[in-house]
Amino acid sequence: MNITGRFLSAALLLIVAVSASALRLEPIKFGNMQSWYKRTVSESAIIGGATKTLYEIAPAGSTTGNKAYKNLGGSPWATSNVYAKVSGVVKGSCAVEPATVNGQKMAKVQAKMEHVKALGIINMDVMVAGTIFLGEIVEPITSTKGPFAKMSMGMPYTKRPKALVFDYKVDMPNVNTRVKSTGIGGKKTLQGRDQAEVYVLLQKRWEDANGGLHAQRVGTGRERYSKSIGLTKGHQLTIHYGDITKQPFYKSYMGLLNGDKAYYARNSKGKLVPVQEEGWAPADAQPTHVLVMASSSCGEPYVGTEGITLYVSNFAFGF
What we know:
Blueprint lengths: L2 H19 L3 E3 L8 E7 L8 E7 L3 E4 L12 E3 L2 E5 L2 E5 L2 E6 L2 E7 L1 E7 L3 E7 L2 E7 L13 E3 L1 E2 L6 E9 L5 E4 L7 E4 L4 E12 L5 E13 L3 E10 L1 E2 L22 E3 L5 E9 L8 E7 L7 E2 L4 E10 L1
Parallel strand pairs: 2-4, 19-23
Antiparallel strand pairs: 1-26, 2-3, 5-12, 6-7, 8-9, 9-26, 10-11, 12-13, 12-24, 14-24, 15-20, 15-26, 16-17, 16-25, 18-19, 18-24, 19-21, 22-23
């Protein structure tokens, strides 16, 4: 084959490869992280009376005052930023905020320690993982118990995308320990490296006669990041359909969410109840709901490593 022939063949292979990897994108509303709503919360004087700014992924705007937040402007996104009122004491927590990376606006999702101190009365630290997800937070938060019961996870969705597509960057401290700190009983250092993660889960849900919610897992895409990663655009997190437990890529953290691992959602009466995943749906099943989450930690609540930071933007479903 002459030089021209070899060049044409190489060009053809490149075109085929690009075509095979290209996906038709369906952006998730507000998933480009360009629009943020600011809340100004005044913490109680007994813990210092600081003013905290909490950010939400929603139409641009602002409000001042200690008010419960509900998703605005049709935004499907919630964050781990919360207004808490425990035994009459008001506290604001902000672990998610807008940031600019290489000229690109992104959500900065960070693990951090929230300090609550009042001389002779309160002296506690709480490890907070920065998280964004499709769903809602029920405010005000009144205790550190049962954090999943304060979140409604997922949104109605019936399509079958091939992947979740997004831009991301990871800053990972070079440590192999985590800290567990619930604000009760002091801090505890745990061995093992924490990881940031992103996942997309498709479920087929139903409600029983008593208002309990159940689901089969239709599709799964979940990955974790244990090291720093530079800005990566158009990353594709493949969604695998059906029972994936025998597949070579399967990891235990991709398994079903039930028991204490179950997330919550509102039933037909508006009550938050756990969604128990009962099994794996057939590979050709149609989902009823989708869950998307990006977090600076992959462990249990109130466990993490300070400084782990995940930047994300431009979320879309790829077909």
